[in-house]
Amino acid sequence: MDSKLPPKEQLHQRAVEGHPITQCEASKIAAAESDITGSGPIKGGTAAAAQSVHDKQQNFFSKAGDVARKPPGEVTKEDAAAVQKAEARLLGQRPRKGSMSAAVQSLADKNEKVKEA
């Protein structure tokens, strides 16, 4: 692949580190890849990886944002599971301690205990 395009691994690492891949950036990568190939982006290539990372980030931001807008006392285990699923999909692995998923799970666990009391 041409040096004008970032390696797919770099795009994934940026996502893991919390740096967003914008739609504009994904489009620029697709245009550069099209210029290189002369026929459009490559299936499974850098442009596809950039778009995939962008889409996974947007899904995670949406799920986390939905939960963040709820009153803290109304966060459920189902909310925590949705955030964890989206974060795991973005990271390509199970979220670690200290992650957004862990914080939402902790809040959901506390809310469950309050309901049981």
Question: What's the oligomerization state?
Answer: single chain
- Provide the β-strand percentage band: under 5%
Helical/strand content category:
mainly alpha
The value of Rg in angstroms is: 18 Å
The percent range for helix content is 55-70%
Which H/E pattern describes the elements? HHHHH
What is the count of β-strands? Answer: 0
Structure annotation, total helices: 5
Biggest sheet statistics: none
Our count of domains comes out at 1
> What is the molecular shape?
elongated
**Low-confidence segments, ≥5 residues, pLDDT <50?**
none
Question: Overall pLDDT, averaged?
Answer: 93
Short synopsis of the structure:
The chain contains five helices and no strands.
Describe the structure.
- With 117 residues, the chain is an all-alpha fold.
- The chain has one domain (8-116).
- It contains five helices and no strands.
- It starts with 7 loop residues before the first helix and ends with a helix.
- The relative contact order is 0.12.
Give the tags.
117 residues; mainly alpha; 5 helices; 68% helix; 0% strand; elongated
Write the layout of secondary structure elements.
Layout: H1 8-16, H2 23-37, H3 46-68, H4 77-91, H5 100-116
Helix pairs in contact: 1-3, 2-3, 3-4, 4-5
